[in-house]
Design a protein that fits this description.
Layout lengths: L1 H14 L22 H4 L12 H16 L4 H33 L5 E12 L8 H6 L3 E12 L2 E11 L6 H14 L6 E7 L7 H7 L2 H5 L2 E8 L7 H10 L1
Parallel strand pairs: 1-4, 4-5
Antiparallel strand pairs: 1-2, 2-3
Helix pairs in contact: 1-3, 6-7
């Protein structure tokens, strides 16, 4: 059973997402295999599914065998099976959202820009052999980064903007201030932008949305869309940028 479990783990981590069909423009397509049909996972597919994935079916078979071997632990086995279902869903969403990022990049023209924004978790000064109480009692600082993708002579250009604050609060006002600095710093201001971020309260809130409604008047920038990604999904180059800054 250990060998079968390792095979299932490899399939879910490495192979499963390769069978999900999302084109370069971010559109999903019907697949006859039920486990690999993203429109069905999103509740939008009305077509029939006439095939099954042998590797995905191994998951149900493995848990069924485990129930027979450990009949006294049925509740714990079922709970773990449900948790695995959440991870399965996570892999499907991650593949779809990563495709949306690439689709947005393809939509850039000479007048627009794609902006990826993210907060780094509160960064704490570190010292050797410190007690846990000392670690949690320290005050830190906030890092907010913005990657601005533009196109010039058919070449994709990327500019990085890092904003530091000794105040660890991550709110709409600091976020809006970061955008204002970038708009006033860019040598060539884009006429339209598309934004990608996580769905944290510092982005997904009424205060920031109210300010965005005035960006066309204040900065001459039209916001075409704002895509909210789930935490831990759709990793982009901003994560690599944070790793380089932190190191």
């Amino acid at each position: 059973m250990i060998t079968e479990l390792e095979s299932i783990q490899h399939h879910l981590k490495r192979e499963y997402e390769k069978d999900l069909k999302v084109d370069c423009l971010g559109y999903t397509y019907h697949v006859e295999c039920l486990e690999h049909c993203l429109p069905y996972a999103f509740g939008q597919c009305t077509n029939s599914h006439i095939s099954n994935c042998d590797q995905c079916n191994k998951i149900s078979k493995w848990f069924h065998q485990l129930m027979q071997i450990m009949p006294n632990d049925l509740e714990r086995i079922i709970n773990n099976r449900n948790k695995l279902q959440y991870y399965w869903s996570h892999q499907a969403r991650k593949t779809y959202l990563n495709a949306q990022f690439n689709a947005n990049l393809l939509s850039i023209d000479e007048e627009g820009a794609i902006i990826v924004v993210d907060y780094k978790m509160k960064i704490l000064p570190k010292s050797a052999r410190e007690a846990k109480s000392d670690f949690y009692g320290k005050s830190g600082w906030t890092l907010h980064s913005m990657l601005v993708y533009t196109k010039h002579n058919n070449d994709l250009e990327i500019q990085a903007f890092d904003h530091w604050s000794s105040d660890t609060a991550q709110d709409a006002w600091f976020t809006a201030s970061c955008f204002e600095v970038v708009f006033n710093t860019l040598e060539k201001k884009p006429k339209w932008i598309k934004i990608l971020s996580d769905n944290g309260a510092h982005y997904h809130c009424s205060e920031l949305m109210a300010m965005i409604a005035n960006w066309k008047i204040w900065y001459g920038v039209d916001v075409h869309s704002w895509t909210f990604l789930e935490a831990g999904e759709a990793k982009t180059t901003i994560d690599s940028h944070h790793a380089q800054v932190y190191n």
